[in-house]
Here is the input.
Amino acid sequence: MENTLLANGRRIAYYSTGDSRQPVPLVLLHGFCEDSSLWDPVLPGLQVFRILRIDLPGFGASDPPLTPGMDSYVDAVCVVLNELNIPTCILYGHSMGGYVALEFARQHAERLAGLSLIHSHPFADSPDRIEARRKGIELLQHGKKDLYVAQLFPGLFAPAFARQHPDIVEAMVQKGRQGPEAGIIAALTGMIERRDQQDTLAQCACPVQFVLGALDGIIPLEQAMSATPYPAISDVRVFSEIGHMAMFEAPELLMQAVSEFGRYCLRRLEARSSNKTQTSPPG
Ligand code: MLT
Here is the structure.
């Protein structure tokens, strides 16, 4: 069910499913030009958890941010968590959602029991990437949103998958087109300006998961792999034959990765809090 909050007069939409009695939810953040429905293919296997999905500002049913930048997205996540009185969560981010999750980890490390980067990485944009994003902004400013979005999605899937499932690619294009230009431009600007988060990863006290596709054309495997030794605890999963969209290309594998990591982080949190209780001085 869709829930809506207002922050600074802007709507933030989120969706709550699974076991609502669980105090520590799995929070799922979609990527660029997507919305919370991105996670639909993996939701059935996650119902034992409490799941929150948030439409990042400018996508789905959330209004565009007042100012572009990862901060606005992090603020939206905090607004939802605060509204629901949730101090701690396990945060999963797909691609741009991973950039948001990393910025959340930098600002609110104490609220994280786990961080999962799904087809994402901690590196800032290369000059080529910035140039491509600027060209995209120009297209959007010239009213070419449909063209821009149509070019975006086919390259996100492994070529064989895109050939075999044109319906899935087309559904993503149709959904991507529904978002306002302002939201897409804000996201492109935010990604251009985002900081390098290698330090954030290296300082992460919580476990970090990396889910990578060997055929990902957006997040090169070798570059992403180079970041996997940074955190003290890493769970690395590389899916062969998969591009940037495991939720469609390999939903069973992704469901398993999300749920195993979630279980591990929850068990770790429980063990830590019972140790604390046992060792804390009486009174
Ligand atoms: C995404 O899927 O969120 C974006 O393609 C990420 C990016 O462009 O860096």
Summary: Residues 279-283 have pLDDT under 50 and may be disordered. Residues 31-32, 95-96, 191, 218 surround D-malate (CB under 6 Å). The CA atoms of residues 18 and 47 lie 4 Å apart. Residues 251-279 form the longest helix (29 residues).
